[in-house]
Specification:
227 residues, mainly alpha, 68% helix, elongated
C-alpha cells in the first residue's frame, strides 16, 4: 500500500462539527489542522495522517482541509517542517562558545545527526521522501548552514579545497548516518546514540581535514610522472 496515498484505512474519532467559519478564522483553522495531524503522527505514525482523519479530528469537511492543503503529502510536510526550525537553533547553540571553526563544524555536525535521530519520522518524510518544494528548501537551507562553517574553516586554514565540494562530502556523511538508522527499528540502533553522533561527526570533519585539494593532488601526480 502506498503510504503517501492512502486515505481510507485509518480510523479516526470524529470531533463535533465546527460552526461556520468567520472572517479571520482561516489561519486559526489551518493551525488546528496541523496540530491535529501532528497529534496523529506522534500517536499512531505516518499512516494515521490522512485528510479524512484530520478533518474528523477537527470537525470540518474534507473540502475545508483541501482549502489549506492541496494533498496529504503537503499536509505531512507542513507538520514535519514545524520542527526543522529547531535544527538551526541546535546548530547555533552547539558552537556558540567556540572560536575554533573546525571544532564548531564538528559540533554542528553532531547537532545535525542528533536532530535527525530525535525526529526520525519527520526527517525521513522531508529528506528522503518524495521531493517537493518544501523538502528542497530544507535541504538547501541545511547545506548553506553547513557551508558557512566550512568556508570559515577554509579561510582559517583548517580545511583545504573548495568549500562547496567539502560541504557536499560532509553533508553526505551526516545524512547517510541518519538515514542508515531511521529505516531500521529503534531496537537495532546503537545504545549510545549521542556517542554515535559524535563518532560520525568526527569521521566527517576530520576526514574532510585530510582531503587534499584536487588541483594540488593533480599537480603532484603530474610532477611525479615527469621525474
Amino acid at each position: 500500500m502506498d503510504q503517501l496515498g492512502s486515505e481510507s484505512s485509518t480510523p479516526a474519532v470524529a470531533a463535533p462539527r465546527r460552526r461556520r467559519a468567520q472572517r479571520g478564522d482561516g489561519a486559526r483553522l489551518r493551525d488546528e489542522l496541523v496540530e491535529a495531524a501532528e497529534l496523529l503522527l506522534d500517536k499512531a505514525g505516518e499512516d494515521a495522517v490522512t485528510i479524512r482523519a484530520v478533518a474528523q479530528a477537527v470537525g470540518v469537511s474534507l473540502p475545508a482541509v483541501y482549502l489549506h492543503f492541496g494533498s496529504r503529502l503537503e499536509l505531512l510536510h507542513t507538520v514535519c517542517l514545524r520542527v526543522w526550525g529547531e535544527l538551526g537553533d541546535w546548530m547555533g547553540d552547539a558552537d556558540a562558545a567556540l572560536h575554533d571553526p573546525l571544532n564548531a563544524l564538528h559540533q554542528r555536525s553532531v547537532a545535525y545527526v542528533r536532530f535527525g535521530l530525535a525526529h526520525p519520522v519527520r526527517y525521513r518524510l522531508v529528506m528522503t521522501g518524495p521531493t517537493t518544494a518544501a523538502s528542497g528548501q530544507v535541504a538547501s537551507s541545511c547545506f548553506r548552514f553547513l557551508r558557512g562553517t566550512v568556508q570559515q574553516c577554509v579561510e582559517a586554514g583548517a580545511l583545504r579545497g573548495d568549500a562547496t565540494a567539502l560541504t557536499r562530502a560532509i553533508a553526505a556523511a551526516l545524512h547517510g548516518a541518519v538515514a542508515l538508522l531511521i529505516f531500521q527499528p529503534p531496537e537495532s540502533w546503537p545504545e549510545d546514540v549521542d556517542g554515535f553522533a559524535d563518532d560520525v561527526a568526527t569521521l566527517a570533519t576530520r576526514g574532510a581535514a585530510a582531503i587534499e585539494p584536487r588541483s594540488v593532488a593533480g599537480q603532484q601526480r603530474i610532477d611525479s610522472s615527469r621525474s
